[in-house]
Amino acid sequence: MVVNRVSDSFNPRRRYLDIQQAQQTIYDFLLDIVKTWHAEDVLGEFKALFLQHTETVSSSTAPALHTILFANNSEEFHHTLKRSCYILINNWEVAREYGAIRNLIQLFADPAIQRMSVSPSIKRLRQWLRAFIGSSDFQDLTLFVQNRFNNEERHWSQRYTAYLLAPQYINTSNPLEQREAARVMSQRLRDKFKFDLAMYTAHFQKAPVQTNRRINPTMLGDSALRVIKALVAKRGMFSHRNLARIFHEQTQDLTYGSYKTSLMEYLLFSATKTDFVVTLETRLGNKLNSLYTQSDQKPLDASLALLTNNRVIDCLMTEDAETPSSLFTLLLTNGRPLTLAIVLLKLILISPNSHPYLDARIADLIRYYEQFPREECQWIIHFLEIYSVTLAICGSDVQYNLVHIQHAAANNAETASLDEYRIFSQIMQELQWAPIQHPDHS
User: Fold this and answer.
1) Could you tell me the superkingdom of the organism this chain comes from (predicted)?
2) If you count Cβ atoms within 10 Å of the first and of the last residue's Cβ in the chain, which end, N or C, has fewer?
């Protein structure tokens, strides 16, 4: 009796297992050396392995990469290279080895990658490297160095890297190392903005001359102070945090239909009933009324509330994750960036799990508008600045206070102008910020 056997070398499952083993060999090697070696030596090993395909100090890494090349699977190579980069970036982010991250990205500018080779394996390697460099994954990698260097020619969108990183850390198909590195850097950028804003407001009114003042971290000029005053003035029972807490308590036992009605009232609570606000209320109300109508009579549950808040974000920002929604355009072209920023703040205060989703939608809009010249994007830039300030003032652990300075009007403070108040900021101990340094000084 003759038994037909499939050669192991042509067995798809066997080949897949070989690739997995080869990938793990590379990951383990990089994890080991990045934690114990100097960054310059780690970069040398990375270059030898991925760009030159020569021997490393480990006798198993070059054969492991050869296994992937021999399998002729460009997708697995792409995944291996991407995850290897983020293993290094993630560890260097934590260690604040920012110069090493820059040097890693610069390795891909090596002219050798563009050269032709008679060696089939080197030819395939360089072809795949060029494809990787031209991919969106490589563009994601460059976000980790864009904000670390002074570059007068940089694109306006690079100022908002904290948002552009969001799609990386919410995408569960990305390697864990990539998601963590993106999350850590995004949070560090946000903390830096909060810190700089607090320092600016604390010192602005103390400095006798412009040269002695702290740098304004916004692009709003000194009008940023008026925005901050308007936000801080909303205190006590009508603070955004307190209203969010009350809303959460009062909607616990509602049906889903009643929840949607309450959500509409909460989002526009205290908004002056101008024609514009009426239009916003009508458009948002129609959207909410049409959402998940089959559940209107059912008790509210957390997952349905989250979905609903995310759909409202879509309505306000982008409904196809590519182009701005009609309501977003209406809000900003009518000069209502603060109105939109406050509505978005209210949403994430009652639904913290919607915050990463909102960040990703903001990233979508930045990607859409970055195709246009800066002068055509002033209104979206203005919104992003207003939103960043709103989040820093009302959604962070920095305490801001208004102090009345016109003694003659002290008895009538309720009717005093905001110009008669000064802002005092206090950074709470929970705020831990490590400055993002130039790599040459780290």
Assistant:
1) Bacteria
2) N
- Contact partners, residue 321, CB within 8 Å, separation at least 6: 360, 361, 364
Phi-psi region of 440 (alpha: psi -120 to 50; beta: other; left: phi over 0): alpha
Q: Is 277 helix (H, G, I), strand (E, B) or coil?
A: helix
Counting every residue written for the chain, the total comes to 442
What does the alpha-carbon distance between residue 198 and residue 194 come to, in Å, rounded to a whole number?
6
Structural contact between residues 95 and 439, judged by C-beta atoms closer than 8 angstroms: no
Q: Are 366 and 163 in contact (CB under 8 A)?
A: yes
List Cα–Cα distances, 237 to 325, 417, 424, in angstroms: 33, 21, 21
Helices 74-95 and 12-36: crossing angle in degrees, nearest 10, is 20
User: Phi-psi category of 421—alpha, beta or left, where left has phi over 0 and alpha has psi -120 to 50?
Assistant: beta
**How is 222-241 classified by DSSP, letter by letter?**
THHHHHHHHHHT--GGGSHH
Secondary structure of residue 255 in the 3-state scheme: strand
- Looking at residue 49, the DSSP 8-state letter turns out to be I
- Report field, pTM of the whole predicted structure over 0.85: no
Place of tokens 């970036």: 89
Taking only the tens place, the pLDDT of each residue in 69-86 is 888 889 999 999 999 999
Task: Return the DSSP state at 60.
Answer: T
In whole angstroms, give the CA distance from residue 284 to residue 291: 11
Interval 104-141: pLDDT, tens: 999 999 998 988 888 888 899 999 999 999 999 999 99
In the block, residue with structure tokens 């003759």: 2
List the beta bridge partners of residue 399.
426
Q: Which of 387, 392, 398 is closest to 430 using CA atoms?
A: 398
Q: What is the DSSP letter of 290?
A: T
